[in-house]
């Protein structure tokens, strides 16, 4: 990883006062400093005066407490006339701890998931490990969803609530990445189509990649259409609940049968979405912008 002081010439960030990633991790790698951040987080009223913050942290030595608070001040904590409050980086550290990112590695054995396999019609099941939730077919093992999900998100949720949260999280994160904003760091993401479809058994997938933090998300092409107005209008007018149905239950999202590669140079992809006696055909370019769409009747074989 490059030093944070190294930025592109066209960046709006002047990083003369930035600290390196190693230094930043070193600052918070101290129990007293983490306790200070936790005390700020747990306080219903901020800013907190110095003496009150020291009392909540439980450090009797004022000089020692001031030393550790001073290490946090500037990058993780800010001082105001009323006391001390978070900076964004300080909140992110506490959120990462609460999410279990640093200190939890739970594993959930397979449990039933709603829907049926787009390949064989078998039952779906979900499992959790390595901070990823996977939904696949119990019979043929075809993967329908495979995404990161913070360990803290498992806390206090039933399997049904977990799958609902997973569905919403995947939708929103990929929507943000497709709009050019990294869900992790806020940096700029690029979008590309690829035939390197691992772990999905698909002809083509979408890859969103952040130029700043190297965040990467891989998804089926159809996932980007879940918030496309043309698609929403077509399905909602025919009684389909797009928002209330898990994305992996839509064959045009997770299956290949509805997708046609028209060309690769440049990329042109057609996705067919069936509803009632009609289907919507949406054509996408390499940036996943809709370049054409049409509603056509479904031809039935007598």
Automatic annotation (TrEMBL):
SUPFAM superfamilies: Winged helix' DNA-binding domain. It comes from the Archaea. Residues 21-97 form the DUF7347 domain. InterPro entries: ArsR-like_HTH (IPR011991), DUF7347 (IPR055771), DUF7351 (IPR055775), WH-like_DNA-bd_sf (IPR036388), WH_DNA-bd_sf (IPR036390). Residues 115-290 form the DUF7351 domain. Gene3D superfamilies: Winged helix-like DNA-binding domain superfamily/Winged helix DNA-binding domain (1.10.10.10). This is ArsR family transcriptional regulator. It comes from Haloferax lucentense (strain DSM 14919 / JCM 9276 / NCIMB 13854 / Aa 2.2) (Haloferax alicantei).
């Amino acid at each position: 990883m490059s030093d944070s002081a190294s930025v592109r010439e066209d960046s709006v960030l002047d990083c003369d006062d930035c600290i390196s990633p190693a230094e930043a991790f070193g600052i918070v790698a101290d129990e007293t400093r983490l306790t200070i951040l936790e005390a700020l987080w747990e306080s219903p009223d901020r800013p907190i005066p110095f003496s009150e913050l020291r009392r909540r942290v439980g450090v009797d030595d004022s000089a020692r407490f001031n030393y550790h608070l001073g290490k946090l001040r500037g990058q993780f904590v800010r001082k105001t006339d009323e006391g001390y409050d978070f900076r964004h980086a300080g909140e992110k550290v506490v959120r990462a701890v609460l999410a279990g990112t640093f200190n939890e590695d739970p594993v959930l054995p397979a449990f039933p998931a709603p829907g049926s396999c787009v390949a064989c019609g078998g039952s779906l099941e979900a499992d959790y490990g390595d901070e990823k939730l996977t939904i696949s077919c119990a019979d043929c093992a075809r993967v329908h969803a495979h995404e990161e999900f913070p360990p803290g998100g498992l806390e206090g949720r039933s399997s049904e609530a977990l799958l609902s949260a997973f569905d919403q999280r995947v939708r929103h994160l990929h929507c943000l990445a497709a709009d050019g904003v990294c869900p992790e760091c806020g940096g700029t993401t690029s979008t590309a189509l690829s035939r390197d479809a691992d772990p999905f058994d698909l002809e083509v997938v979408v890859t969103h990649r952040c130029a700043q933090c190297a965040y990467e998300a891989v998804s089926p092409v159809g996932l980007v259409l879940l918030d496309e107005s043309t698609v929403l209008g077509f399905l909602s007018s025919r009684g389909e609940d797009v928002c209330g149905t898990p994305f992996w239950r839509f064959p045009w999202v997770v299956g290949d049968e509805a997708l046609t590669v028209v060309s690769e140079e440049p990329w042109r992809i057609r996705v067919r979405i069936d509803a009632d006696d009609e289907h919507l055909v949406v054509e996408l370019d390499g940036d996943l912008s809709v370049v054409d769409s049409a509603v056509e009747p479904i031809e039935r074989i007598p």
